[in-house]
Structure formats: structure tokens, C-alpha cells
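Researcher: We're teaching a course module on how sequence relates to structure. For the next exercise, students receive a sequence and then see the predicted structure as C-alpha cells, so they can try to spot secondary structure elements on their own. Here is the exercise chain.
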Amino acid sequence: MDAYHIPAQTRIGHVHLKVSNLQRSLDFYCGLLGFELMMMYGDQAAFISAGGYHHHIGLNTWHSKGAGPALEYAAGLYHTAILYPERKDLAAIFKRLLDAGYPAITGASNHGVSEAIYLNDPDQNGVELYWDRPREQWPLDAEGKLTMFTQRLDAAGLLAELN
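Model: And here is the predicted structure for the students to work with:
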């Protein structure tokens, strides 16, 4: 079989999450994170976006209404990653989470190529909020190969973006 390389412009279009309580999820994704409700599909699904796109996230209760969270130690989605355009945008949502006293922040990391805040949504689905550094700032080894890492995020430095 010939080697195939996916086109460089390819992007992940959207994620569709099974949730146990649609309104509670809308309160989190729209009310706290600031996504816009684009469309309800009856009372069992909602499509939300940033900037008027048809949807970045689908939420549904078709097979999960009232159910508990997915098992932590089982195959499945690890997290949904939401990419913010600039560092100050990540700082703004981080401050919003802190001001709201959001209880499910699970981590904050500097990966060299990006900075990220990790949390769980109300159904314990993992969510990563992050921004990418410009490519020319990505860490490379002596041979020019990418060397991502995980270090503690400088939270104070991130929040200073808002001053």
C-alpha cells in the first residue's frame, strides 16, 4: 500500500458528546465557557459553536440521559481540546473559571508548543482549554526535531496577560 499523508489543512471539525443532563451541559459549555447555542434538536440534543459556525460541539442524551459518567479506566475519549486564538484568551477563560470557583480544574501545563488548562465537564468528560505558541517558538532538539514536554504552567504569568 502506498504511503498516504492526510492534507496539512485537515482539521477536526467537531466533537459530539453523550451527556446525562442536557441543560446542565449547556450551562457549562454556553454559560461558563461562552459557546453559543446554534440549534436545539428537540429536547435531547444541542449544537453549540464559537463565532457562528454550525457547531463545534454536539451534546446529546440519546443513549445517556440520567446515566453516570463513563468509566475512568476504560477505552473512550480522553478529552476534548478547545483551541483559543491567543494567550490572553486562555488567560481570560482561566480567570473566569477561577472567579466562578469551578471545582473540577484537574491540571495546568506548559507543553512547550502550548499552554493548557485541564478540567472536567459536569459529566466528567475531560476538557482541555489551550493556546498554541507560534510554530517558530516550538522547542526543537539539536537535530531540529520537536521536543514537547510537560511542565507546570506559570499561572501567574498567564493571568498577567490580562493586565
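Model: If you want an answer key for the exercise: The chain has a mean pLDDT of 96. Helices lie at 22-32, 87-100, 155-159.
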